[in-house]
Amino acid sequence: KNEVEQSPQNLTAQEGEFITINCSYSVGISALHWLQQHPGGGIVSLFMLSSGKKKHGRLIATINIQEKHSSLHITASHPRDSAVYICAVEGVFGNEKLTFGTGTRLTIIP
Amino acid sequence: DTAVSQTPKYLVTQMGNDKSIKCEQNLGHDTMYWYKQDSKKFLKIMFSYNNKELIINETVPNRFSPKSPDKAHLNLHINSLELGDSAVYFCASSQGAGVNEQFFGPGTRLTVL
User: Fold this and answer.
1) Under an 8 A CB cutoff, do A98 and B45 touch?
2) Other CB atoms within 10 A of residue A50 CB
3) B104: which of A43, A110, B30, B68 fits an S-S bond (Cβ 3.0–4.6 Å)?
4) CB burial class (10 A; 0-12, 13-18, 19+) of residue A20?
5) Chain B residues with CB-CB distance to A9 below 8 A
6) Secondary structure class of A63 (helix, strand, coil)
7) Subunit contact A95:B90, Cβ cutoff 8 A
8) Could you read off the pLDDT of B33-90 as tens digits, one per residue?
């Protein structure tokens, strides 16, 4: 069993829908990262959080340390949001390796 | 300005050859990483350097040797390439010690024939 599990693996939605991607992990962490991998292959860091909630534009990330769970939400989804979203956790001491989830492939249909 | 750059973007080579991938960051970061993304798109850490010193080595075969001539560069040299080395290799960097956002390079797609 992977230390970081994401669900769903694939998600197809209509433009404008509210999107939720979930990440559960089984180890102690210092931080959790959400990454976006574009269809062209590039990887961009969206969020890094160790507690609570962060918001950038239409994207919201939350984390519950006690439950070892994080969610990434996209409001008013758009076809340009189509990408693979990857959750990764960083070990307890910081500056440690990232352990990645298997990713969620999101497709937004116009 | 490119923050983290890698060369080459594509690399096609024969089994048994030796090849290098270069990575440079102009962000002034202290820590650099190499990740491998396999055919199933799963990312895994290979190495991490902090101020030119190796701090993470994830049981990667000895054929892989990272080299950090200065803290802005982390190159990956691969000896005796095997078919299973075909993957996309990503370089990344982050600021100093502690928990920090990582910035990724564009990736190098290595194909071993």
Assistant:
1) yes
2) 13
3) A43
4) middle
5) none
6) strand
7) no
8) 999 999 888 999 998 888 888 887 787 899 999 999 998 999 999 999 999 999 999 9
